[in-house]
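task queued by scheduler; priority normal; single chain, no ligands, no partner chains; default sampling; output format set to structure tokens
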Amino acid sequence: MQVSAYYADTYEAQAQTRVAAIGERDGAPWVAVEHCLFHPQGGGQPADRGWVDGHEITPVRDHDSGLVVAMACSGDTLPELSLGQPVEVRIDLPLRTAHAALHTAGHLIEAAGRAQGWVLAANNHFPGQARIEFTAPTPDARLDTPEGREEATEALRVEVAEAIAQDWPVTWENDAEGRRIVHLSDLHSAPCGGTHVRSLGDLADVVLPTLKVKKGRIRVSYSAAHREKS
């Protein structure tokens, strides 16, 4: 049995656990642990950086078993492990919180876009590539001119800044179908497999350059960081 601990607590950085399964993928060995801190790449979010007993690994979702498995990074090898063996696992917490901040900021920008009457079309929460894309069911004349696009972007910025200032909580629950639903207070709810900050006040340096319109889509690029604790 494997517990997706990265959902229960974004900020858990280290744990003692046991080997739940071992196997191979494309000829390379992998290990799965019971208390899994490692978030695999998916849902527009990159994978965590992690370690098993000091050996650097990359987490990957194994489609055959459904487990998140740890595979050795290039230049390292996994030690010989057996089922039930105790191991220490840890993640790069600053990298995790950076990913969580970008993912949460993306949901917040989606909420602000919905308030403009737009509909989500696509998203990407990777560092340096983060963007939310919308369509407008009804024509938005502001988007026809540079000045109008800046006006629309500023409306998004204001709504995002107000939500962060209110420090609304970020929570999640499983619905009746078993899907994980993430809530930004009453602002936004959506099925999501990513990691998130505890509350919107954890977001810092959320920057939205003037949006672009391309092939009928409204593209809002953004950057964000996790607020450093004082």
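post-processing summary
- The mean pLDDT is 94.
- Residues 96-226 form a domain with the Threonyl-tRNA Synthetase; Chain A, domain 2 fold (CATH 3.30.980.10).
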